[in-house]
Amino acid sequence: MRVIIKEEPFIDPAKHWAQRGYWPARVISHPEVTTDKSSVMAYRRCFNLPQNTKLRIHVTADERYELFLDGNRIGRGPERGDRDNWFYETYDLVLSAGKHMLVARTWWLSPDSPAPYAQVMVQPGFVLAAEGVEPDILNTGVAEWNTKIIGGYSTVCPEGAAWGAGAKVHIRGNEFAWGFENGDGDGWVSAKTICRVAAASYANEYPHIWMLRPAVLPPMMEEPRKVGVVRHIQKVDTEDTSHICVTSADNIPSEAEDWNKLLKGAGTVIIPNNTMRRVIIDLENYYTAYPEITVSEGKGSKIRILWAEALYLDIDNRSLGKGNRNEVEGKYFFGMGDTFEPDGGKSRRFDTLWWEAGRYLEIFISTADQPLVIEDFTLRETHYPYDFKSKFDASDNRLAEVVPIALRTLEMCSHETYMDCPYYEQLMYVGDTRLEVLTSYATTRDDRLPKKALLMFDRSRRLSGLTQSRYPSRVTQIIPPFSLWWVGMVHDFAMWRDDPEFVKSLIPGIRTVIDAFIGYINADGLVEGPRGWNFTDWVPNWWDGIPPDGHLGVSGILNWQTALILGLAAELENTFGDPEIAQRNLRMRDRISATSKEVFWDNDRGIFADDLSKEHYSEHSQCLALLGGTVDGYKRDRMIEGLLTDPNLERTTIYFSHYLFETYRLIGRIDKLFERMGLWFDLKGQGFKTTLEKPEPSRSDCHAWGAHPVYHYFASVLGIRPASPGFKTVKIEPQLGHLSYAKGEMVHPKGMIKVEVEQKDGKISSNIALPDGIELVSNT
């Protein structure tokens, strides 16, 4: 029913250039809704068709919508973007003759009850435009649409639980507009018309509130799940359960059977009148999902469903961490979620406006004079619809155990954008996304989400020339090193996928990033710390992840990164841009590298320092210097030895270990990669279902920058990499380390690359199969 379109609708070349992009519809809103107050609204249009009709509708809203046709949900949206890139979804409908009802539920969270940081907002509005019928049948602002405020909603911002993820809902059933999706009930009024809307690529007349672009992603996967097992049921006498320790002495195991049947969809649970219960459920995996609970009776009762990634060892000192994620005994549940108050009616289904995330649920229920019957509890799991095709196996079983954990993390952190984490910020950061995208390239052919990420970062650019560090976002943040990594992302795409026109469209943005960094070069020929948060890695001894002298000073790490990216930008210019600019980039790279080799080199230790005073040293400097390819001879040999043996280097953590692993591959020491995989090998035994943000104690238990080992299984262990832009040729340079064999099938845009490698008595043999038309240019 949802379709992706490439040609924008309603474009009439015969019209004046300033008018040809306007839609034959208007944005509408509820006449009483304002931007300073959170509201949930419904819009309805009842219409009659004289005959069976095939039509196409285009739909969007600010901030979000759900669309119902004849009472059935057919879609959600809009796909996240920004004011100048406001996406709309397209639906093809085949309708029988007769009466039909279209209803949309939209929501607007005011700044005081905030939407997720990743949710850009302008003003409340809804627009629908149809093709295949006359404008006065369905088009908003032309046809007679009615609207109502759906009562019973209030919003709660979870204090200290998970900033950036947005407010949660509290629904009072006695005020709720039950049956709104069918257009039922009173209180409907005529919608007010706000303004015209136009396609972004044709909008020439100002002001415009939103610049519309067709959605570029498929609908998110949304499937019902009956999952979970009760770990603890407890009688309580207070709503504040966060300070109640989970102990087996308080458990009521006799009530668990009914709850477990409910979770499997095979029974109901009855909570007697004047009762309080606390139920902790282990979903047994990490989920991002819309929770739905259906109840009857229970007037005056309250249901609160909180989500957590794991339970805490100490509620008053959460920095102590969470311990083994499988364990609940002796721990404290601290989470966030939504609250529902039944009105005593029959089969009332409560749901949320946005999905939740985590592994554990705490369901708190209090009843008044009427018992509460819980008829159903369902999770509608949602994430980007990946189709993972690649397979990997090796003689060390620990490697295979990491794969489902890593890919689950990637799923949980992939929705309408990539995300750093689903429980907390839900923001697409460049540094995280580069690693997520590489893992996507190695496991699925679908490159729509990577392309959107590249575009959104390109469109986030500030007047300084730098991209924003995370985007889309309604809160601006600049991490200058992440702008450099965005250039690396473009280079990755140019190598792993074959779309030269798309790469060419990003070249102007690359130039602005490079020019911005050239502007930070001082009289000594070195980059001084750009204005912003110069985050590199969560090294414990670095303030806010900033390397020594990275804040407004001269950092060796930032200089080596700049040199590395200048080289990649030069390659892009030579292939897709201007060779003269490529030569300029190479000159700047060589100049920064030459000066860095002189001023940061410590001859006594045989490594590069992180700062000019030579007081700080890290793996990061050595990795970036080696990856940049400008250090050779004596210094390169000593630096490699220092990287491998110096015990006093600051170590890369989970995120930056990707670049460490890249370096190990480059220098032919894949054995060291396996040595540094201990954190990932321990995940299963520590109860993790996803990869964590940083070494314990970790804030986030689900951070997809930790999925990058799967990329390295294919690209570093099996050694499968593009040898030329567009992946038209491939090089296969396996490194097995201690493995006796490794084998895999990796996706390629034109098929599958199959590699089997065996190692015996110091000799390596391999079998390779490539897609038709793909040339092997290297095999060692």
Could you describe the 3D structure shown?
The protein is of the alpha+beta class and 780 residues long. Strands 11, 12, 16, 17, 18, 19, 20, 21, 22, 23 and 24 form an eleven-stranded mixed beta sheet that branches. Strands 1, 2, 4, 7, 9, 14 and 15 form a seven-stranded mixed beta sheet that branches. Helix 4 (430-443) crosses helix 15, helix 6 (480-496) packs parallel to helix 8 and helix 8 (556-576) packs parallel to helix 10 (619-628). The mean pLDDT is 95.
Let me know the largest β-sheet: 11 strands, mixed
Distance from N terminus to C terminus (CA atoms, Å) equals 49 Å
The whole-number mean of residue pLDDT values reads 95
Which runs of at least 5 residues are low in confidence (pLDDT < 50)?
A: none
Per DSSP, the total helix count is 15
Helix percentage? 10-25%
What amount of the residues lies in strands?
Answer: 25-35%
Number of strands: 33
Shape: globular
